[in-house]
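Researcher: Quick one. two chains, 538 residues in total.
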Amino acid sequence: MKNFEYARANNPADAVRLVGDRPGATFIAGGTDLLNLMKDGAQTHDRIVDVNGLALTDISHGNGFLRVGALARMADVGAHRAVREKFPVVSQALLASASPQVRNMASIGGNLLQRTRCGYFRDTGSACNKRIPGSGCPAIDGENRGHAVLGVSDHCIAAHPSDLAVSLIAVDAVVLTNGPHGERRIPFGDFHLAPGDTPERENVLTHGELIVGLELPLTPAAAKSQYLKLRDRATFEFAVVSVAAALDLRGRTVNDVRLAFGGIATKPWRSTDAEAVLRGRALDTATIDAAGRAAVHGAIPRAHNAFKIDLVQRALSRVLHELGGVR
Amino acid sequence: MPDNSETPKQQHKRRTVLKAGGAAAIAGIAAAHSVTEASAATQAQDAALAADTEASAVPIVLTVNGQARQLRVEPRVTLLDALRERLDLTGTKKGCDRGECGACTVLVDGRRIKSCLTLAVMRQDCAITTVEGLAKGDDLHPVQAAFIRHDAFQCGGCTSGQIMSAVAVIDEGHTGSTDEIREWMSGNICRCAAYPNIVAAVQDAAKEKRP
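Model:
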């Protein structure tokens, strides 16, 4: 790891200034991804600003929403009673993430900024458009079993790794930030970016902009939600495919629904097309299957990841059958 | 339990030999024949970094096993390297150095973390417990005793991390069933696959209350 200057911020304004002033600076919270990236040389920084001293760990009730501080740890948010009761999909996604030790360390804000597990991205001996723009994408014609089939471009097919982010997009979360240009509220669906021509840009944050918290709106759908993560071993592994669903049924009819997917896309992937198939219709096997087909419409399979297109439809079917009590 | 009376040059042990071999490799001498593990050279480099006391190093205080320890480290030094290479607390093991194996698990303010994924400078003002801090004199911690009773290790490389995680898993109350223990111990990998014995040891230790 290349050495760097270390600074500890005492308040958000300090943190923003200490990073904003220096192009090579970045924040550190849990450090569970950043330090690996720096050890691997996939990222280098000449200043690290420690934000762990900021008072941003609270989980509190607001008017119609739950507010989660950006420095709340994954373990604490996953176990929090209000999160388990009002946002089960979020709690389940968190408890299916990483390992207990990492969940004790990693922050909610940092989780949203973790970088892809694409082996070419992490290996500085490989070309990678995300790491070195213009150098090429070896994954497209290479080893791509873990890669995305949706939201891809000719420049990058790396899958987004976060379970939490998939669950948050399914509950209409809002990202709260504090940056050099003041405070912002960013709807979760606008936060992450598909690679397009600029795979190095993964979200809309500007340099020095700090995530300070999340707002989770309390809704009937969020309260009846579920996360299913399928992986290559029973636990402590990234998703091959995952599904986050939030469902508000009136009788047998879908009043409102959110469907989001992980492992198959370059960013936390919400399918409004699949939701539209279900909304206002009776929830049964036929409509569930139609929603699955809509969710993968336009998917682009590669040599090793075409199986995800079937797998994710089956995963969605299982979640909606369970959540909706459909036999 | 830890014997801190030993001075560095008193004995040649496996790790002092490895350290010497690694230092030679850094100096550019063809010392590959003396390095027995593929990762030893990298680990020796990290050790050299951890030992660096150039101007970029900063003075810090780490509270480890109840003792305040003063040291100077560069900001890039992980808690794991500071414990092992600077404080000679080599009970905490360096396996993957990427947060994937759990061998480096320690408790910070009572919570288990992976010490390879955090910087020493970030862990001042915390109470750090390593495997050396579990026993009270010759009295082993119940988890240590249970690991011996159940033969819950083979090579021992993962064992201190398994024990630290097991202490935490019992405190957290995640020992209701073997499935629950397996899930909540999943951050600790055992390449010898001593898992059945580890699970049995955790289950057994969970029944005991420490006096």
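Residues 5-49 of chain A form one domain.
Researcher: Thanks, that's what I needed.
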